[in-house]
Amino acid sequence: MAKTLELEFSTEFGKTARISVDSPKEPIDEEVVKLSMAQIITSDVFTTASGRFVAAKGARVIERNVTDYELT
Amino acid sequence: MAQALLEGTKLRLVFEAGIDDEGKPILKAKTFSNVTKAATADQLSQAAQAIAGLCNDQLNKIERNDSSEIIG
Q1: Partner A contacted by B56 (CB < 8 A)
Q2: Could B50 and A40 be called an inter-chain contact, meaning their C-beta atoms sit closer than 8 Å?
Q3: β A51-64/A16-22 pair status
């Protein structure tokens, strides 16, 4: 089961940008996620077509199930 | 004289995701685009540490990938 943590940020011009982190630490600690997102915003490293990251909007964990079938 | 024009910057994080059968570390890389060209090493390190803090795997290396267009 592949899990991904998606961080959603608001950008300067009101759009949403996402950063995804593979195999997140579990259980998810909301405080840590909040803090890390704040740190990513202050680091001012990321920019998009709709501007820099200005606020943390949300975070979610996405689970993907893959079932392989042998068709031979 | 040819000139190099910085065209884009990417942040690449290398994670250690366990150890393989031969005892060598399994390295997994994740690349983040949308990085400002003006980002300093300090800023990149801060963002990388924040992202790594959310991940289960241990951060092995932080890389900055610049691509430049050569004119001349």
Answers
A1: yes
A2: yes
A3: unpaired
% helix / strand / coil in chain B, to the nearest 5? 15, 60, 25
CB-CB under 8 Å, B50 with A45: no
- Output the average pLDDT for chain B: 92
Query: What is the mean predicted confidence (pLDDT) over B43-67?
Result: 93
Distance between CA B28 and CA B46 in Å, rounded?
20
The answer to whether A41 faces chain B, any CB pair under 8 Å, is no
- Closest residue in chain B to residue A33, using alpha carbons only: B54
Q: Which two tokens stand for residue B58?
A: 């241990």
Query: What amino acid occupies position B28?
Result: K
pLDDT of residue B72: 85
pTM of the model: 0.84
